[in-house]
Amino acid sequence: MAQSSSPISAVAERYAASLYDLAADAKQVAKVESDLGRFEALLEGSEDLSRMIKSPVFSAEEQAKAIEAIAAKAKIDGLVGNFLRVVAQNRRLFALPGMIKAFRAIAAEQRGEVSAEVASAHELNAAQQTELKAALKSVAGKDVSITVTVDPSLLGGLVVKLGSRQIDTSLKTKLNSLKLALKEVG
């Protein structure tokens, strides 16, 4: 994996690599990926949880208790439950979103996939996601796993990040380009 300049992403990559090694040894990569996805959904759905993992105000004990309760309620146990506890005890919860992203990237790489981040103005249905994966596979030459986020500010179209490439077909960008072109003419 490429070395990153950010200390947070370096921490995230080390923790993710360790979790991947444990998951691969236990032959539970898919389960770990699924559990991390469920925890990520909880994180994205709760401003309080997001604030708690980012805030240095909470002690390690308070964070560990909160993570323990959340994991138990969400039935996230095993490797991911233990991983979350270790991350909380080591005061590294602030890097947890990066750890999840890094774990997915490592898992995808091991499966021979590349991962793409897609921002869409509206939710993509299964057929649209399948079509998008096929189009990206023809560009990348490998299977592509996609993570879709909805960004209504795009107005229409997609923004796709595939490796170091970004493809922006959003209506928002096209309108901004047109606005600039009209300013230059006038």
Automatic annotation (TrEMBL):
Entries under PROSITE patterns matching the protein: ATPASE_DELTA
Entry superkingdom: Bacteria
Role, per record: F(1)F(0) ATP synthase produces ATP from ADP in the presence of a proton or sodium gradient. F-type ATPases consist of two structural domains, F(1) containing the extramembraneous catalytic core and F(0) containing the membrane proton channel, linked together by a central stalk and a peripheral stalk. During catalysis, ATP synthesis in the catalytic domain of F(1) is coupled via a rotary mechanism of the central stalk subunits to proton translocation. This protein is part of the stalk that links CF(0) to CF(1). It either transmits conformational changes from CF(0) to CF(1) or is implicated in proton conduction.
Keywords assigned: ATP synthesis, Cell membrane, CF(1), Hydrogen ion transport, Ion transport, Membrane, Transport
Source species of the chain: Pseudaminobacter soli
SUPFAM superfamilies: N-terminal domain of the delta subunit of the F1F0-ATP synthase
Lineage: Bacteria, Pseudomonadati, Pseudomonadota, Alphaproteobacteria, Hyphomicrobiales
Calcium recorded as keyword: no
Pfam families given in the database record: OSCP
Membrane as UniProt keyword: yes
Name used for this protein in its record: ATP synthase subunit delta
Membrane topology: Peripheral membrane protein
A GO cellular-component term linked to this record: plasma membrane
Family classification: Belongs to the ATPase delta chain family.
MF annotations from Gene Ontology: proton-transporting ATP synthase activity, rotational mechanism
HAMAP family in UniProt: ATP_synth_delta_bact (MF_01416)
InterPro entries: ATP_synth_OSCP/delta_N_sf, ATPase_OSCP/d_CS, ATPase_OSCP/dsu
Principal subcellular localisation of the protein: membrane
Annotated localization: Cell membrane; Membrane
